[in-house]
Amino acid sequence: MRAKFFVMIGTAILLAIAALYPLSGIKDYKSLNAKLTAAHIMHNADKPLSDFSLIDHNGDVFDNNSLMGSWSLVLFIYTHCPDVCPTELANMAMLKAQLENKHSAIIPKVVAITFDPIRDTPEVLKTYVSHFDKGFVGVSGDSQQIDQLVKDLGAYYERVVYDEAGKPITLKKNEPLPEDAIEKGYVINHTAIIYLISPNGQVLAGFPTPHKVSDMANDIELLTKVFEE
Fold first, then answer.
1. pLDDT in tens, 31-62
2. Element (H, E) at 223
């Protein structure tokens, strides 16, 4: 029930962002938005992603330049997620396969950024994301820089720990984890939007849940074709 609530919140956030962002520029984004079945345009040339420097699952630097020059699908996950995250990564594997089977001109790389860098080290992420597809990229690093990306993309998460009686306690933003949180375990409630990043390193569109792979594939083909024209 809690996960469903955050799915609804994520969709509402994305729709609000899409409504506020100006659909301006050389392309008719308003007309394009009307043709999409799964995505919403989020393009705003005046609001680029903040500068960041994180670490990918191979231990290499992953920064703004890593999103330049090719299309990417970015999503936020955490490896202890019981349901939403593995489902989304499985969907991304199916989406990639569908685009390959359609011989699509552009197949975006999939980048999974953790909400939980304390537990999700690069090594942990490598094992986790590779299980779904060996071409997926897991990203960890400084929590403050991850939080800035979360904010830039309009995502949201909250950490929930448990007291001695097993009662869930939602931590306030920037509130540190209790010393025994890793031992006792904690969960992260979060939105599950997937973001299409263009070759210039800017967010072009967002896919709110539920994620229907066939609709996403069609929208990606349309969006990348229009952008490349």
1. 888 899 999 999 887 788 999 999 999 999 99
2. helix 213-228
Dihedral sign, Cα of residue 46, residue 210, residue 135, residue 229: negative
Cβ-contact 71, 196 below 8 angstroms: yes
CA–CA gap between residue 127 and residue 125 (Å, rounded): 5
> Cβ(115)–Cβ(76) under 8 Å?
yes
Give Cα 141 to chain centroid, integer Å: 15
CA nearest neighbour of 214 among 82, 58, 94, 113: 94
Q: CATH classification of 2-228 is 3.30.70.20, yes or no? A: no
Res. 30 pLDDT band, cuts 50 70 90: confident
How far is CA 180 from each of CA 115, 161, 167, 177, rounded to the nearest angstrom?
Answer: 19, 10, 15, 8
CA distances from 104 to 175, 181, 219, 223 (A): 45, 45, 12, 12
Vertex 172: Cα angle to 184 and 156 (nearest 5): 95
